[in-house]
């Protein structure tokens, strides 16, 4: 499956422009691991790949917690600055060689301006949740959606995190349900991969 995907991406690369790939999926669906494997395979095929992890660019806690929004909407609307990332990441990443992005420093809980050099990249892979929201979906040449049932994704959390199930119900799962209902990621993705049972289905856009 991964080899077939690599061949498909290589065909996309025959054009002159940089190829933009999105790896979408809900929390704990395996996006980071999958992206690492895909990037490594493409590199072995002689392609230069830049990988961007959307969770590196979340907003400070004072923005995404304690607002007037319901908790699920805080997560969906405020966890990332949707408009800013559209302008500073998604819009310029095809042509620009240097991206200036608001990176979140986990240790100090602050934002600093990161200078991300992607000049040498033939392919840029962005991995993150909610990638197919309307503000972002149109920038990708190809979107891969990793489909894993909620119960399995929750089992991948550590024991301490699983004890916070009420927070998942109020915040994360309601936001996921909103995304699934309004953006229909499995239907709109170019390729859907079921990582819970190693099944893979693909379709042309």
Automatic annotation (TrEMBL):
UniProt cross-references to InterPro entries, sorted A to Z: P-loop_NTPase, PRK/URK
Source taxon at top rank: Bacteria
A molecular-function term among this protein's GO annotations: ATP binding
Residue ranges constituting the Phosphoribulokinase/uridine kinase domain according to the UniProt record: 20-192
The protein's name in its UniProt record: Phosphoribulokinase/uridine kinase domain-containing protein
Organism listed in the record: Halobacillus salinus
């Amino acid at each position: 499956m991964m080899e077939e995907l690599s061949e498909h991406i290589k065909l996309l690369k025959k054009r002159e422009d940089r190829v933009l790939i999105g790896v979408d999926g809900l929390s704990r669906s395996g996006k980071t691991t999958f992206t690492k494997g895909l990037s490594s395979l493409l590199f072995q095929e002689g392609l230069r790949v830049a990988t961007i992890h959307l969770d590196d660019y979340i907003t400070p806690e004072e923005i995404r917690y304690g607002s007037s929004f319901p908790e699920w909407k805080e997560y969906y609307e405020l966890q990332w600055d949707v408009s800013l990332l559209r302008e500073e990441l998604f819009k310029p990443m095809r042509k620009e060689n240097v991206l200036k992005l608001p990176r979140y420093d986990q240790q100090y809980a602050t934002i600093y301006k990161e200078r991300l050099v992607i000049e040498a990249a033939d392919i840029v892979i962005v991995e993150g949740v909610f990638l197919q929201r309307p503000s972002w979906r149109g920038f990708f040449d190809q979107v891969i959606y990793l489909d894993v049932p909620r119960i399995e994704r929750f089992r991948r959390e550590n024991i301490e995190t699983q004890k916070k199930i009420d927070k998942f119900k109020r915040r994360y799962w309601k936001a996921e349900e909103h995304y699934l209902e309004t953006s229909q990621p499995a239907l709109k993705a170019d390729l859907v991969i079921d990582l819970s049972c190693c099944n893979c289905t693909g379709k042309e856009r």
